[in-house]
Amino acid sequence: MSKVGQRQINIPDGVQVVEEGRFLKVTGPKGELTLEMSSRIKLEQNDNIIQVVRSGNDKKSRAFHGLYRKLIANMVEGVSEGFVKKLDFKGVGFRAEVQGNKLVLNVGFSHPVEYLVAEGIEVKVEKNVISVSGIDRQKVGQVAAEIRSIKPVEPYKGKGIKYIDEIPRRKPGKAAKAAIGGAK
Fold it and tell me: 3-class secondary structure for the chain?
């Protein structure tokens, strides 16, 4: 039995969850999200609580049980509070700025890198922190990962773009290796 799928989803005030055929529509103060539901999953809605129930006990139904519960919980959280990913960048001369729906990064290349921000995602830059926010958790994570992949942190000096809570791997340079290796 899926332990994730068994948990209830509490619906906060101001959020509506409506089933329209095979689609689930979640509307809240920040926006609206839709999800195509599997025929193997059913929803039981009582007052402000949703319980996800599977139709059978076969392998696919058990796999979808926890997945759809988490997808619906993320949709409810997204339309009520939203999601934010923060990226930190470090390096000599590294700059970032938002121009309309583009993020322009000067991160050590011979030219500035322009990243076109997806619809429904908001990007802000404050000092050396890039904030990616939106109501769709998957989109927010994807945009943050794509921005990070432009210039990932290199292990010797720690220059590049990283998540704010990420601890990059650091390696000793040639001088440190020579001092250790030459002492034999």
Answer: CCHHHHCCEECCCCCEEEEECCEEEEEECCEEEEEECCCCEEEEEECCEEEEEECCCCHHHHHHHHHHHHHHHHHHHHHHCCEEEEEEEECCCCEEEEECCEEEEECCCCCCEEEECCCCEEEEEECCEEEEEECCHHHHHHHHHHHHHHCECCCCCCCEEEECCCCCCCCCCHHHHHHHHCCC
| 88 and 44 co-located in one domain | no
Query: Residue 183 falls within a domain, yes or no?
Result: no
Domain residue limits at 140:
83-163
Tell whether the model's pLDDT for residue 32 goes beyond 80. yes
Give the global pTM: 0.87
CATH number at residue 52: 3.90.930.12
Same domain, 22 and 90: no
Q: Can you read off the two tokens belonging to residue 113?
A: 């890198």
Mean pLDDT of 146-165: 94
